[in-house]
Task: inverse folding
């Protein structure tokens, strides 16, 4: 786990050369020695971005640093993707999840991790990307006759979108759709409030692993 810690530190200190080198080492550890799991590396990357976020909040880092750390993390995740698919493979090919980041929000690193893991767990993911309107979510749910909607939201300012989307689901007669929300601005309490206000089943996932468990429960 020392390598994962070093990778985490090199993202926080923007040491690109070290990030590239450590990513390669981590990949060999996963493939050859099987001493590290891809999910442990994801946890390390998540911690790194959380630390960068704290430094940003404290005024130590600024927006360009956030962007750069996000890019370093993205490159590592892209290299890990084939291994994650290998780790999580199971059979739920016919189960479809519509996924996206809500309107007004451009964050996609967490959503992309969910996409990769859920695909690895055998789900078919229709990823609508970032800044997705409620109309687009609803149109796609209908198009695929999908019953699970995964929403990523990292900005408190976008909380209202969750109410808008779920209320529309109800109004459109799609009350059998179940919603799973995740991202920095989401909480268990918010999920409960959204469910109460809309009547649409809404669950909160604190991370990707918890998210996959919830998908499994909801889709049974
Ligand atoms: C990287 C980052 C950025 C990057 C985004 C790059 C990208 N391509 O995504 C950039 C620089 C572009 C950015 C921009 C902004 N950001 Co920003 N950003 C972050 C940062 C540092 C990390 C987020 C991240 O990627 N984390 C790592 C991923 C892996 O974690 P995650 O998203 O939480 O996802 C995990 C779980 O939550 C869960 N999950 C997530 N989504 C879903 C969905 C489902 C269905 C499921 C099951 C699970 C799930 O699974 C994931 C894996 O376990 C956070 C700080 C933080 N602590 O979160 C701030 C943060 C989210 N940003 C913030 C802000 C304010 C902004 C800006 C408004 C800044 C500005 N002034 O312009 C803009 C917003 C632009 C916009 N309209 O969206 C604030 C939000 C505050 C709030 N509560 O509203 C934060 C919290 C920073 C802070 N402390 O102030 N940001």
Result:
């Amino acid at each position: 786990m020392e390598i994962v810690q070093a990778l985490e530190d090199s993202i926080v200190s923007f040491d690109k050369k070290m990030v590239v080198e450590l990513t390669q080492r981590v990949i060999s550890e996963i493939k050859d020695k099987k001493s590290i799991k891809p999910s442990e590396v994801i946890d390390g990357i998540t911690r790194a971005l959380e630390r960068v976020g704290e430094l940003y909040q404290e005024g130590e880092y600024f927006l360009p640093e956030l962007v750069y750390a996000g890019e370093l993390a993205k490159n590592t995740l892209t290299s890990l993707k084939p291994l994650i698919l290998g780790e999580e493979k199971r059979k739920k090919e016919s189960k479809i999840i519509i996924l996206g980041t809500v309107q007004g929000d451009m964050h996609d690193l967490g959503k992309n991790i969910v996409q990769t893991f859920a695909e690895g767990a055998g789900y078919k993911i229709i990823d609508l990307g970032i800044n997705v309107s409620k109309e687009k979510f609803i149109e796609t749910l209908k198009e695929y006759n999908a019953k699970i909607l995964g929403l990523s939201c990292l900005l408190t300012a976008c909380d209202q979108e969750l109410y808008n989307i779920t209320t529309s689901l109800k109004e459109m007669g799609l009350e059998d759709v179940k919603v799973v929300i995740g991202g920095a601005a989401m909480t268990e309490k918010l999920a409960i409030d959204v469910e109460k206000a809309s009547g649409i089943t809404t669950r909160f996932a604190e991370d990707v692993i918890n998210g996959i468990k919830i998908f499994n429960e909801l889709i049974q």
User: Anything to note?
Assistant: The chain has two domains: 2-88, 96-219.
